[in-house]
Amino acid sequence: MSKSLFRVTLAATACVFAASAQAQPKTEKALTYKMITAVATGAVDACQAMGYQVSVTVVGRNGEIVAQIKGDGAAPHTMENSRRKAYTALTFGSPSSTFAKQIADPKNDGARQRATLPGIIGIGGGIPIMSGKEVLGASASRARRARMMIAPRQASIASKDSSEPAESVRDYRDH
Fold first, then answer.
1. Residue 142 belongs to a domain with what CATH number?
2. I need a surface site. Which of 4, 47, 139, 155 has the fewest CB within 10 A?
């Protein structure tokens, strides 16, 4: 092996080791099992107590379903609608009702184009689950008798040991 080839190989190897020594694993906040189950079961329980037959979906930060419950008496389509509303809220980082208003605006061609993306739906009822400005996931419900939104409060999640979000129920029939 020539001396110049040896030097180039040695320099390249040093660069690889230096770069890998600086690489650090990415740290992300995530929804915990307790948070996910509290949102999903709390939403179904709250709606059923008010006489609504709902399905609830909670999606994680990558759009994957982390919980989905079909409440007693909920129609079959409510499972898919709740999933799509949660996915829409996650994708845009805002309530799906905001997106529904955007696509209703005849001047907003961009929103109507985004409405054609797979999994997106322009119906209110989905809300992102936030930690500060970071979107951790989203939740949504779909009721048989009325559109309902079951949303976790925008609780600050400081660590994996933080307290669980409380549920809140808002009726979106007028939106």
1. 3.30.450.150
2. 4
Closest CA to 115 of 127, 125, 105, 130: 105
> Tokens at residue 69, please?
């419950």
Handedness of CA 113, 120, 98, 105 (dihedral sign): positive
28 vs 41: which has the higher pLDDT? 41
Q: Please give the single-letter amino acid code of residue 60.
A: G
What is the number of residues in the chain? 175
Q: Would strands 167-171 and 148-152 be described as parallel, antiparallel, or unpaired?
A: antiparallel
The answer to whether 122 and 100 have CB atoms below 8 angstroms apart is: yes
Instruction: Look at residue 86 and give its three-state secondary structure.
Output: helix
Q: What angle do CA 73, 74, 79 make, to 5 degrees?
A: 150
- Mean pLDDT value across residues 103-118: 91
- Asked if residue 8 belongs to a domain, the reply is no
Evaluate whether 46 touches 71 at the Cβ level (below 8 Å).
no
Mean pLDDT of the region 61-87: 94
State the pTM of this model.
Answer: 0.71
5 vs 91, residue with greater confidence: 91
Per DSSP, the three-state class of 43 is helix
20 lies in a domain?
no
Q: Which two tokens stand for residue 105?
A: 């605006």
Residue 162's pLDDT is: 39
Q: Is 54 a member of any domain? A: yes
